[in-house]
Each structure stands twice: as C-alpha cells, then as structure tokens.
Amino acid sequence: MSAVDTLLQRLRGRATGPQPCADAGPRFLVTKQSWRGQYHRVLCITPAALITHYPETGDTTNVWSLAGDADIVGLEVGPDSPEGGLFTLRMAPRKGKDVKLACRARTALLTVLYQSLATLQVPIPPALLSPPTLYPTWKLRRGVWVPATLRISSWCVERLDPATGSVRWRLEYANAATPAVHLLEADQSDPPGASCLALFGRAGRSPRVHALRDRAGALRALRGAAQRGMGLVLAVDASAAASGPALLAAVAASGRERGAAEGPLAQWDVLSVHDVAAAAAAGGAGSPTGAPAGSGPPRGVTRRALVLTREALLERRAGDYELAGWRPLARLAAAVRYADDPQWLGLEWGDGAPACAYVTPARDALLAAIVDVASRAAGRPIPVLARPTAPGDALVAARGQAARVPALRPNAEVERIVLGQLTAAARQFAACGALSSSSATLALAGLSSQAGLTGRGVEAGGGGAGVGLKNSGTMTPRQDAAAAAVRRAFARQGPGAPGGGQGAQDPEAVIAAFQQRVRELNACVPASGVHAGSKADEAVVAALVAHLPRQQAAPVPLGLDEATLAIEALQCLDRLASNLVVGAQVVGAAGGASRLFACMLAGNAHLAYEASRLLLRLFSPAAARSGLPAWQAGGCAASLLGPGPLPDGLLGAAGSGPDDP
C-alpha cells in the first residue's frame, strides 16, 4: 500500500476528541439600530437560524429562523456608517418590523450568512439569496483549455466540473484582489468565439484564466451580484495587453524569480491535503480541514515541495517545481499541531485565505521553522494550537478580520466581552466545587457535556465547539463512560459541595462552559496578550491552574483530551499574564508554580512548549509580546523579577476554496 493510500485510509477513520456541534457558527459583533437607540449584540450565524446575545452575559435575545417557516424573508445591503456597514433583515409579517444592523466586518458576515443559506435543503426566497447564474466556460490549465462551468452567486464565483457538478475552485468576493478581473487579449489558441478574462484573488495563488462566449454578460452578472449581495464594487482592468497563455507564463516566471530572489531557508516534501467535498457544501469553504483522523467526505491529497523563505511560504509542484501557491508569513494567524496525529500540520491565515493542512514525518521540524520565521516576519508571537479553531470561537468585530481564525490585532471591546464572560464562567466553575478536581476529571466532564447529554447552563452565548443551543440526543460509548465517571467523581464530594445551586447539580455543563470560554478568549485575544489595564479575577487564575496536571513523584503520561485542555489553559494564562498583576497571581496561586513545572515534565512536547512560553512571559515580557527569543528582544521592561533592565542570558534580556491538484 502506497503512502497516499495509507493516508486516505486514515482519513476515513473515526474522529477522536470534542467535535463542533451541529449548530456552532461564526460570531460577529453588531450594532442593532432602532427607535430606542443603538446597542451592541453578538450575532451568531448557525445553519438554520440567526441568534443574538447580550455581549456582557451571553443571554439569548433573539432567534430568527432561516429554514422552514422562515422569520427572515429578505436582506438589503445599505451604505456605510460610523458603526460599520449597514444591512437590513426583512422580517416575515408575523415578526413585526424589519431589523437594521451595522457591522464593521459586514463583508465577512454576509459571506458566512450566504454560505449557511446555500447549505439549506429548502427553498430560499430570492430576496434573501438570489439564485446563481451559470455560464459555460473553458479554463486554461497548463496550456490546455478544459470545459467547465462558472457559477456566479451573491457571495462568490465558482468553477464547477461539468461532469459531476462539484466545485473545483472558488473565489469569494471578500477575498478578491483589486482589480479582481482583468480582460485579456485574444490568442490563436482560444476556443472559437470566446473571449478571455482572468480572476485574481488576494491569496498568493496564480490567477484563473477563463474563456467565455458571453464575457460581457458574465462580467455584468459578476459585478451586479457583488454589488447587490455584498455592497462591494469589483474593479475591472480592461487595459491588459496580454493573452491568457502569456499571462500565466508571466506569472510562472515571476514565481521563479521570487523564489530565487528571496532565497530558501529550508524545503520539505509534504502531502498537501484539502477537503474536496467541502467545496460542494458552501458552509465548508475556506475553513480548515477536519481533524486528521476525522470521519466525513474524502479529501484530496497532492504532493508538494514546501519552501520556506524569510517572508513567505511557497508551495511548488513536485513534478515541474512550478509555483502553486505563495503565502506571506506576516499574515499567519496560527499553526495547528494536531494532537492526535504526529504527522499533521495545519496553518490558519488571517487574510481570508483558506487554511492549509500538510502531512509529513518531519512535522515538528517544519512547525518550529515556520513559527520562528513567521514570528520575525509578523513582529508578534504565532500561537500553536492543538486543534483547529472552531467556527464560533472567534468574535469578529473589525473591518478586514477573517472569520474562523484567531484574531491578529487587539480589540478592546471584544477583549472586555470575552474577559467578562470568562470571569463569570470561572466563578460558576469554583462554585460547583471543580477547583479540587483532577485534570483528567475535568477533561471527562468537558467530553461528556459536549456529547449533548447536558445542555443546561451552557445556552448563554456559546457559539463555539461543543457548547450549542440544542442537544443532539446522541451518545457514544466513550462519552457515556465519561459522563458516568464525572458523576461518580462529583458524587464523592457529597451534597455539601460549594455552590449548592445549578452549578453543583450539573457540574459537567459548568465545566464545559468554562472550557469553551477559555477557547473563545484564546481566539479573540492575540497571542501578544491583553491590554495593560486589563484585570483578571482570581477565580479565573484558579480555574485555569486547576486544568494543569499535578506534580507527581514520577511523570505520568497525559491523555489526549487532558493534554489538550492543559495546553489551552496555558495559552489563556499566557495571554492574561501580559498584565504583571495576573502573572503574580499565577505564580502565587495554590500549586501554580509546581503545576507549571509539572507541565514541562508530563511527557508532552506541546504542553512543555506552552509552559516554557508562559515562563518566558513571566521573566521576559517584551520578548513574549514580540514573539522573539528572550536574548534578541532588546529594550527594557518590567517583569516579575522587578522593573528595569535585566541581565543578559536565556531568560535575562527583557525586551479561495480547494485548488486544482
């Protein structure tokens, strides 16, 4: 069996660990406008409904269905305002007045909304989602014109395989370049009666050259769909003095020159993995591939030569070494070191480009090199995740911010919201008596609650993985055993466990809710840390420390879920510890220092890495903020060792959808 066959067989295996629930969806900070005034809401887009929450408490305020007897029958895009781009939800007569909202990330919000609508297997009102327009076309691929179909919809343009109808390529209007369309000159190799155009995206891939017999009609449909559906004006360059083959030849030559000029630092032979069927389901476009052992549709595997330079990551075809993709490292949002497979590496990008997934035996060497070079190129630390970012973890609030990936820049309003919700969840966590539980028990509690066994107490605003608005009612044997173990563990505490209220009656739901808040803070606050004036309650630090392994006489290997939760807790502590007061709380917490060093001796490389990063934060804050090694950060900054300059030394110097295979 070949390596590719082995990989495909593993891709069909069953997923382990917590999985996103069916109704998890991206979240956006919006401003609701009415005759009573303007007020903020968190808008969660699920496959079947739009849900709004109070930012401070996470309580649900409105639920508007999109399927069946829909509450929303139309959508109208308005002009820009000081609060962001305006759009109006046309409500059904039984729902009363229309709802006017403003969002600074309106383009990303509408893209996700249209994706969700496109996945519904029910009729959609044309006023809400216009039917797509199809144009027969030819796509120029390696000098050969291949028949295809262009589908133009309200949020993207796609190329379909005419034989199967599957999506082979997609360009979202939100990720289109400026100009997005170049009109090309005729060439003797063009199909008879067809005119050519090239579509450009902001991601570092070559343009797509198409030949259409009705180029003018397709161009009008493309620009009209972007204007009506997204409020975007796609720029068109009609002055291009090149044919389709000449353009692709020039792009290939430019790629060769770029690779020679930048100078490669290292190169790896990898398998590039993308979800083939995710293109057919609009909701899966642009999102990272699932867990490496995940069940689901087949994935495409392509051999690539991955070249790392000081400024970019280049994908080259294994056969002819031509440039297949170019990604600037400064836009890297996070790297994913899959905890359940030692060969899988994921990369999440903050510019709207699709996530990458690679398979290589040298995964950790590749990861270390990318994180080191990307931190220097971006001037900030690059987080290393144990699993991909769930759709609802990040709260999108800024113009140009990508959904489904961790935030790149700090946002004071979002930070205040997620920190307040984390504090409330930590207090409930302490009230239910979970502070004295082992990290293994806490991992089992999160697993059992995410199975949908206990939805009580987690409805408040949880849009991310595992904390949904409704229970699935399904239970695997592993989750059943987890729930039983958790209930036995908390039953031993007796009826006098602190709290006595709902938290004590349903501890696994409270624990899962806190763990979800931790993931949300990690996705909403950049790895550089919180603002200097931010404060964290002592209950937050205590609850996070409780997720770390206890110091043992001999190292005890951690389970997969237990190690993942400890990694996420350390990443949350690292962000909070950018405030020196919180850093002192971490060191002074009961068992805080011993558990921190226990993480380094637990036999898990990723856990030891995160513990070392937290130690770097405590002893060299400037280096942690910049993502540089402590001995290269330079400058002076206060630390837990005291204000002012520190001695030099190790801790001393303070300072577009699936692509063609």
TrEMBL record:
Residues 282-301 are annotated as: Disordered. GO terms for cellular component: endosome membrane. GO terms for biological process: endosome organization; receptor-mediated endocytosis; regulation of early endosome to late endosome transport. It holds the Pfam family RME-8_N. Residues 282-298 have a biased composition (Low complexity). Residues 27-175, 302-389 form the DnaJ homologue subfamily C GRV2/DNAJC13 N-terminal domain. It comes from the Eukaryota. This is DnaJ homologue subfamily C GRV2/DNAJC13 N-terminal domain-containing protein. It comes from Auxenochlorella protothecoides.
